[in-house]
Amino acid sequence: MSIPVITIDGPSASGKGTVAERVAKVLGFHFLDSGALYRLTALSAVKQGAALDDEVRVAELAADLPATFRDGAIWLADEDVSDAIRSEAIGEGASKVAALPAVRAALLARQRAYRQAPGLVADGRDMGTVIFPDAVTKIFLTASAEARAERRYKQLIGKGNSASLTALVADMQARDARDTARLVAPLKPAPDALFLDTTSMDVESAVQAVLDHHASCKAKAS
Ligand code: DC
Prior knowledge:
Layout (H helix, E strand, L loop, with lengths): L4 E5 L6 H12 L2 E4 H15 L6 H9 L3 E4 L2 E4 L2 E2 L7 H10 L3 H12 L7 E5 L2 H5 L5 E6 L2 H14 L6 H17 L12 E4 L5 H19 L1
Parallel strand pairs: 1-6, 1-7, 2-6, 7-8
Antiparallel strand pairs: 3-4, 4-5
Helix pairs in contact: 1-9, 2-3, 2-4, 3-5, 7-8
The chain binds 2'-deoxycytidine-5'-monophosphate.
C-alpha cells in the first residue's frame, strides 16, 4: 500500500493516456491503461458473438481475458489487437460493457495487481475514486468536447482512416453522457483530484503540470 500511485482520470480522447504514459516513463513507474481492458473485453465479446448487454457472459469473458501487454503492443491470446481495440466501434462497445457492474467487478483485481514498485501511473475513469482511492496524487484531466474530437480526428486521419469531425463530436458527447450517468463508478473527479483542463495546453505542459502536482503531493504526504 505504500507503493505510490498517480491516477489520471478523464473523458475519452482527453489525452490522459498519452500524458499518463509519458509521466510513467519520466518517473520509471509502471503504467496501467484501464480503458484498454474494457476495450479488450468488448472486442472479445464481439469475437465470441456475445451480446454487449449480456452481463453474465461478458463478465465471464472479462474475468478470463487472455490479454497481455508486451513489446509495445496489446495482445488477445496470440493476436496483436493494438489497432483493433482503438476503433470507434470498439470504444463505443467498451463504454457499454463498462456500465455493467459484474464486468467492473471482474476487472478489479487485475487492475490493482498493477500496483508494483517503484510506482504506478493509472489512467481511466475511476482510478482515483474506486480502484486506487488512496493514491498519493490524483488528476482529473479534461478538454472541451470539440478539442477532444479534433485530437481524435487527427489521430484517425493520421492512420489513414476516414472520419467526420461533426460525427466525432456527437459520438464523444454521447459516450461522455453514458460514462457520467452510469450508476457504477461513473466518470467524476475524485474530491481530492487536481482538475487539469488541457484544451489549450500541449502534451509537454500537461506532463509537467502532473509532475509538479505529484512532487507537491509527495512532499505533503511525507
Ligand atoms: O479511455 P478509453 O477511451 O480507452 O476507455 C474506453 C471506455 O472504457 C470508456 O468509454 C469508458 C470505459 N472505461 C471505464 O468505464 N473505466 C475505466 N477505468 C476506463 C475506461
